[in-house]
Amino acid sequence: MWQQEILLGIIDNRELESRRRWTITTRTQVGDVKKSVVARKENGNSESAMCRELMKLPISHKSDRSYQDSAEDNDDFIVSESDRQMLLINGSRQQDEELDELSASVERIRGVGLTIHKELLAQEKIIDDLGTEMDSTTNRLDFVQKKVAMIMKKASAKGQIMMILFLLVLFIILFILVFLT
């Protein structure tokens, strides 16, 4: 299994070396436990017999078999724990990759947000300038309307008729000069 992971690039050399050291250390510890059990069995027959007597346990020759079973159970446990750790490592790597992708997406969104902010500031400035120009034009138009109203008040109805007639005569003269000549 770990060979496939090496080929797939999931495990690097440092991780592989760490696992080898852990396996060697674990096997050494299991060997030490085996040696201590065998030594107790050889040196402590009287203790073992006394313990069995006190506990009323029958003398059994199955201890070697149970020892082998427990060693196999230990090996199975070690393998299952190793597999579980591999799954955890793979899961954390996948989470790291997903977090990297999420971080890149957030950076892109941040860039878009900054661009939108700059554009909004530029649009706000344009609208403010337009508002200022509109205010200026409105003030000038109000001034002209007041002047026209004042001139209209000063001129009487007779003066207005005379002005209209004068402008009409001027129009006719200009029309004749432009189109007939």
From TrEMBL:
Instruction: Specify where it is mainly localized.
Output: Golgi
Tell me what topology the record assigns in the membrane.
Single-pass membrane protein
A Gene Ontology annotation in the biological process aspect, one of them, is: protein transport
Q: Where's it found, cell-wise?
A: Golgi apparatus membrane
Keywords in alphabetical order, please. Membrane, Protein transport, Transmembrane, Transmembrane helix, Transport
* Listed transmembrane segments: 161-180
By its UniProt entry, which Gene3D superfamilies does this protein fall under?
1.20.5.110
Identify the InterPro entries for this entry.
Answer: T_SNARE_dom
Domain T-SNARE coiled-coil homology residues, every copy: 89-151
Signal peptide as annotated in the record = none
What Pfam families does the database record attribute to this sequence? SNARE
- Keyword Membrane in the entry? The reply is yes
- GO annotations of cellular component type: Golgi membrane
Q: What is this protein called?
A: t-SNARE coiled-coil homology domain-containing protein
Record the organism.
Answer: Gossypium barbadense
